Structure formats: structure tokens, C-alpha cells
Amino acid sequence: AADMGKDLERVLIPEEELQAKIKELAGQIDADYAGKDLLIVGVLKGAVMVMADLARALHIKVEMDWMAVSSYGAGTKSSGVVRTLKDLDTDIAGRHVLVVEDIIDSGLTLSWLVHNLRSRDPASVEICTLLRKPDAVKVPIDVKYVGFDIPNEFVIGYGLDYAERYRNLPFIGTLARHVYGAE
Ligand code: PRP
Ligand code: MN
Ligand code: MG
């Protein structure tokens, strides 16, 4: 993996398209939360890039917090078990909360997370995800902000990993089959 380029099948969403979409989402969030006190919650580790760019594209005042949950481990398939690795530092009772995610795939992580956050009595909980895969549409979670609906392929880059690698690519790409061919 010395050269990430060899592990890439193709670029699915180039950097400029990602950045343009994030500005568009930020504009909607600015308008929807104008005059409100908003806490944006990034889901570690995948959402790091989206949070960093989205937060800088917003004009409203926000607080930022992080939760770490993991359902995938090292593979390309969801294990079905969501674990909290780090909880919020913030008490969200009475607060407007916007969860920021990189991708909704099976929907398992977010349906669990939203349920968990709603039990803390916040004023509201909404979701912003950069990417959404087809299976997620079957899960009964309301997603207020979606960047791109993408096909059912394993994607990497811009926060998304395969076995913890490729998060630092500035675009979204698909992984060459030789990298995970054994699975
Ligand atoms: C990935 C991704 C989402 C979740 C989506 O996280 O970042 O959080 O899976 O999958 P789902 O809709 O099928 O639940 P992962 O568990 O790999 O942890 P990571 O963010 O640290 O990579
Ligand atoms: Mn994640
Ligand atoms: Mg992952």
C-alpha cells in the first residue's frame, strides 16, 4: 500500500464535486438553523473530513462534538453490532443536534445512534450524510441532508476506510478488487 493509486478502481466523486456539495448542504443548514443554537456531532472516524469542511462552510454559530461508534471492524461488511467507543462530552438535553456522517450503508449505525440520542431528550435530532447507499433507503430513518446517493459499491476516501486505510484521499473512489479479493 505504499502507493494508494494502485488500489483504486476509479474516482466516483472528485474533490471539486465534494466541496461544491458541502457548500450547498452548508447553505441549507445555515438557513434551517438560523437563530438557533446548534450542536453538530461528527461520527468518528469516517466523518472527520465532512465535519471539518462542513463546519468551515457554515456561517451560523455551532458547537462541535464527536462520538465514536464502530460497526464494521476491519472488513467490508457491517458486523451488525454497534459499539460506543467514545460518547459525547456534551449534555444534549434541550439542544438542537445535527449528526454528521460520511455514509449510510445498511443504516444500522445511524438508526442505533439516533435512537440513542433521542433518549437523551434533545430539542431535535437531524442527520446530514455525505453519501447514502441503496440499502439505507429501506431503513426507517429520516435523513434531512444527503449529499449523494451512490451505487452499492465499496467506497473509500474522504474519511472512508478499508481496514483503516485510504481515509486521507481527497476524493471518493472505489476499491480495486485485488485489495479485498480474499473476502
Ligand atoms: C462506517 C461509516 C458509517 C457506517 C455506515 O463506519 O463511517 O459510520 O460505517 O454503515 P451502516 O449504515 O451499514 O451502519 P465504521 O463502522 O467503518 O467506522 P469508522 O467510521 O471508524 O470507519
Ligand atoms: Mn463511521
Ligand atoms: Mg470504517
TrEMBL record:
Reported cofactor(s): Mg(2+)
Tagged with keyword Cell inner membrane: no
Record field: catalytic activity: GMP + diphosphate = guanine + 5-phospho-alpha-D-ribose 1-diphosphate; IMP + diphosphate = hypoxanthine + 5-phospho-alpha-D-ribose 1-diphosphate
SUPFAM superfamilies (UniProt xref): PRTase-like
GO biological process, any: IMP salvage
GO molecular-function terms, A-Z: guanine phosphoribosyltransferase activity; hypoxanthine phosphoribosyltransferase activity; magnesium ion binding; nucleotide binding
Main localization, broad class: cytoplasm
InterPro entries hit by this protein: HGPRT (IPR050408), Hxn_phspho_trans (IPR005904), PRTase-like (IPR029057), PRTase_dom (IPR000836)
Name of the protein: Hypoxanthine phosphoribosyltransferase
Species, as recorded: Sphaerisporangium album
